[in-house]
Amino acid sequence: MGSHRTALVAVVRQELAEARGTARAVLAAAESARNEAQRRKKLIREAYATCLAQLTEAREAARQDILHRSTTEATALSRKVAQLAALSAPGAAGTAWRYWTPAEPDRVARPGMLRIGTVAYELGEERTRLPALIPFLDHAHLNVLGARPDADGVLSGVLLRALGTTRPGDVHVSIYDPENLGGTLAGFAPLGNAGLLRLISPGGLGAALDELVEHICRVNESVLTAGYASLAELTAATPGPRPEPWRTVVLLLDARSAAELSDSQRAQLERIVRTGVACGVHLMVRGLELAPHPTVERVSAHDGIAACDTTGDLEVTLDSPPPADRIAGFCRATAERLLAGPPPARLADLEPSTFWAESSAHSLTAPLGDSTDGSTVPVVLGDSTPHALIGGPAGSGKTNVLYAWIGSLAARYGPGELALYLLGPSFAQVTPGPRDPSWLPQVRLAGINADGDREFVLALLRHLGEELRTRAQAAKRHEASTLAGLRAADPHGHWPRIVAVLDDVPLSADAEALPLVKDLARRGHTQGIHLIVAARDGWDIDGFPLRIALPKAQGVLAEGNLAAEVIPRFHAATDNGVIRVPDASDRTAWRSLQRKLWLLRDENCDAPRLFDGEVVPRLPDVYRPSGRLPDDVGSSPGAVLGERIDVAARPARLRLGRMPGRNLAVLGTRTDEACDVLAAAALSLAAQGPARFSIFCLDPDAEQAAARLMAELPQAVTSDLGVVPEPGNVPHYLIGYGLDTAGRAQRERLRALLADGPEQRMHVLGWWRSTAHLHDDLAAHLGAWVALDVRGTDLSPLYPQPGGPEWHPRRRRALFFDRSVHRTPEVIIPYEVNSDHT
Ligand SMILES: Nc1ncnc2c1ncn2[C@@H]1O[C@H](COP(=O)(O)OP(=O)(O)OP(=O)(O)O)[C@@H](O)[C@H]1O
């Protein structure tokens, strides 16, 4: 029993121990599960916190980015809006009263918007303002409602800006102010002095409205007849002053006076609202609500704040009214200017709406200036007025008239229609210069500083004579009798009208030039060649039917026409009336026009040739030996001696063929020029092919020049004329300096060379200081000479006619005579050869 119990106890114990063990295990598992759950919970918490932080960060970054972008875009947008506002209301239309000055626009400018205040808005941290603009002239009537002082301020501001952005006289104002009888806008009263302002009496409103409606009918009729939809369109298409001024009618009403308006007055007002803007009639109404219409701009103003149709919901802070003294000062000045007449046209006002759009087939028509009413006055160079004479005393503005005319012509007729030859002291600026590379594309030739070079004037006249002959022959071939006919028969030919301008060129006493001018005047116009001559008083010539007289000019206009006596400064009188000439000599204005035309030119258009009598031409590089020379030299190489005084600036050449007398004498005491002539001759001969040179210098003053020439010439040797060089196939030139002092033996050899050399291709090019040492035995073999400071009579031994040629020596000019070519000698400009290398 005891053992049974013991066994039972043991079993129970055993089971209890097992149960305890199981319970412990379950507890341990439960604990570890709890730990795991807690760990997970912690992890989740941490992840949640990280996620939250990241999200916050991302949200902040996105917010900053959006903020930055919106600020940048808003700044750019606001800048653009500000630019747009400045463009829509430039200058006097938009500047604050503190800085305000009136600005007269170009004739072609159209009215823009006008500022009445500002609109504020937030830009980032800042508060910014933009001008609040409303339309007026050509666009809208203005209907201001609200508090009286605010409304009056808006009205006076808009009226002042409208007047200050248009030309004096272009806006007429009528004011109906039944309570204050004009006192409300008293500052504008001075406009009345020039007829620009009218007060409508309290009983006169009906008549005034009737008259406005009639005016609208009349304007409408002429606008529609001309094929336009509005006065603004007609004005834009019509050159000159406005065909009709704008009419601005200010009605200052209050509740009582508004209630007193009769039905017919209200009906007339409605008509004006509907039709006025297209006819330049604008209402400015306070105290009465106009019937809604697209052309009515409504402004409601209270306590310095306004809302208007153009700015919509935006609140406008109104500008304070313009200062009364500013209004009065402006109106006084405008009235005075108007009474003094409109200002003269500017050079830019002579420009056509399209450059180079005209054909010169029948004439050249261009305005020279405007008349006192502001309309431009065209001047015609054509069949009945082919040539013009501009006369007036010194400083009266002749050159200025020429510039105005040239500019006006050049703006209308392109280089295919017009070619200009200009001779006068001021024409350098139409050619390219170091400071301004532009030129006038129609100019073929400009001559300046030619006072001492009548040869240049003659060359130009002869060139025109040549052109006349060429055209006459072409016309004959095509059986045409006028330029228009020739151009029609030969449409691919190049037949521009030619205008030659001679400004202050001494012609009257020139027995050679005058017949050439007369001949051109008589026959030029049929071939499209026109002359414009500007001269001081005392020059008169037949064949110049178009007369332009400057103040105090004598004998220019028809007898009995005293206009020149009475016209003021900068005016010009013609037989048809008085012209106010713009300031065309103003460099900035001229350059601006020239630059525009220059940019229009064709790429093949050559720059004009400039002849400047004070500039010494350099020996062109093509006449210097450099690079590969031709193997063969022609049978009569040409020695280049200087520049010919002609239209094309060609070199004067002396042909040195195998014929007796083909030698050259350079005569005169001006060492530099003599050395330059010899150097140019020798270098240009060397540039044409194989040649030999012997340099023979007897004058110490010329040694340096002789040495320089030696250095530049290939195959040159010095010589003392001890032996006469052997003839050969290659031409041989003996360049002799200061041959006056040659000894007897040298002279003998020289004579032999002069006499027999040329036929064996040996030629002497020699310099003698005077002709005294050129005895007949030498002179007989000198077929050509270049004379510097030698009197004409001293040249008689070398000249076929007794007494020698007529020659008045002057610096850097030489008389060139080649017996086998010239009938009379020609004046040349010796090239400068050595200025750049010493
Ligand atoms: N319409 C004008 N408006 C303004 N200035 C002008 C006008 N016409 C001429 N002038 C000025 O008057 C001055 C003299 O003009 P210009 O040289 O044209 O006279 P001119 O008759 O050719 O003189 P001269 O006979 O001495 O050559 C110049 O300074 C020129 O700028």
What can you see in these coordinates?
- This protein is 34% helix and 21% strand.
- By secondary structure, the chain is an alpha/beta fold.
- The chain folds into 4 domains: 60 residues; 227 residues, Rossmann fold (3-Layer(aba) Sandwich), CATH 3.40.50.300; 266 residues, P-loop containing nucleotide triphosphate hydrolases (Rossmann fold, 3-Layer(aba) Sandwich); 210 residues, 3-Layer(aba) Sandwich (Rossmann fold).
- A hairpin with a 7-residue loop joins β30 and β31.
- α3 runs parallel beside α6.
- It is flat, with a radius of gyration of 47 Å.
- The N and C termini lie far apart (155 Å).
- Bound molecules: adenosine-5'-triphosphate.
- The site of adenosine-5'-triphosphate has 15 residues, from α8.
Entry keywords:
4 domains, about 850 residues, ten-stranded mixed sheet, Rossmann fold, alpha/beta, 31 strands, binds adenosine-5'-triphosphate
SSE order and pairing:
Blueprint: H1 2-88, E1 113-123, E2 126-135, E3 141-146, H2 148-164, E4 171-176, E5 197-200, H3 205-225, H4 231-237, E6 246-252, H5 255-259, H6 263-275, E7 281-286, E8 296-302, E9 305-308, E10 316-318, H7 324-339, E11 364-370, E12 376-381, E13 388-391, H8 398-412, E14 418-423, E15 443-448, H9 454-477, H10 483-489, E16 497-503, H11 513-523, E17 529-535, E18 546-549, H12 563-566, E19 571-574, E20 577-580, H13 587-600, E21 609-612, E22 638-644, E23 651-655, E24 664-667, H14 671-686, E25 692-697, H15 703-712, E26 716-718, E27 732-737, H16 744-756, E28 762-768, H17 776-779, E29 784-787, E30 814-818, E31 826-830
Parallel strand pairs: 3-7, 3-8, 4-5, 4-6, 6-7, 13-17, 13-18, 14-15, 14-16, 15-21, 16-17, 24-28, 24-29, 25-26, 25-27, 27-28
Antiparallel strand pairs: 1-2, 1-10, 8-9, 9-10, 11-12, 19-20, 22-23, 22-31, 29-30, 30-31
Helix pairs in contact: 3-6, 8-13, 9-11, 14-15
The structure holds adenosine-5'-triphosphate.
